Amino acid sequence: xxxxxxxxVVRRGLERWISxxxxxxxxxxxxxxxxxxxxxxxxxxxRLKGHRIGEARRRGKYLWLPLADTDxxxxxxxxxxxxxxxxxxxxxxxxxxxxxxxxxxxLGTELRFVDQRTFGGLSxxxxxxxxxxxxxxxxxxxxxxxxxxxxAFCAALRLRRTTVKRALLDxxxxxxxxxxxxxxxxxxxxxxxxxxxxxxxxxxALELLGxxxxxxxxxxxxxxxxxxxxxxxxxxxxxxFSRTLDAYxxxxxxxxxxxxxxxxxxxxxxSSYFCPRCQRPPRAIA
Length: 286
What we know:
There is one protein chain. With about 290 residues, the protein is of the alpha+beta class. It has two domains: about 5-135, MutM-like, N-terminal (N-terminal domain of MutM-like DNA repair proteins); about 150-285, Helicase, Ruva Protein, domain 3 (Orthogonal Bundle). Helix content is about 25%, strand content about 20%. It has six helices and ten strands, in the order αβαβββββββααααββ. The chain has helices spanning about 5-15, 40-50, 150-160, 165-170, 180-190, 200-220, and strands at about 25-30, 55-60, 60-65, 70-75, 80-90, 95-105, 110-115, 120-125, 265, 270-275. The strands form three sheets. It has a four-stranded antiparallel sheet. A hairpin with a 5-residue loop joins β6 (about 95-105) and β7. The radius of gyration is 20 Å and the shape is elongated. It starts with a helix and ends in a 12-residue tail after the last strand.
């Protein structure tokens, strides 16, 4: 699933190519793509028509397009395989095209939502006073947000009765961090994924936060992490950060610090990748 860097790459593309344009018409080609819009596809399409798209925004893994002349926004979630593509109007339809949005101008491009697995989708929601779609008002700020409160994060992290990776993936505590970047930040911090949060000192919590921020900025600089064609930017291009991952996906490869073979451990229906020497497990599970 795309994490903060991948979603931010898409947001920047939408801001460049879509913001400021007025919707001429929308076409919903698969009902699951608007299942979070409870009034259905016909209502979704009708309510977009004639409205101008505002500046593309993002919080964590969610992105949205405000409708500039209303108090509503188009909320997008990419799920496992969702893609928001800006394509020439004359380009052939993609096999898994789910939603098409055309614009009332002569630029010759349209916005397409393509989703092979149909876990993602678009929906229309009212905004909170802070400008967020109301259904994501509970999502915390992410570490790249200038308003992210480091002190509050560290205090909340140490009060959680959980383990450090679970906390990093808790979107109500810190948003945008998923499985890939959690493993990368933990490797850089030399922390095992099962380390209790209560055992982290404030300096260690700040160090972990700094590594999470650094690794996501590094991924953002090269377009994010792509393992296959399911994640691409609005022009259909893949990101290249997978080539420089230090932990994720490197089972049985030498640790880049100490040459110990990296390990993979099943974790919450996913996998955690770590170095058994650099990231020693807590004594209770050693």
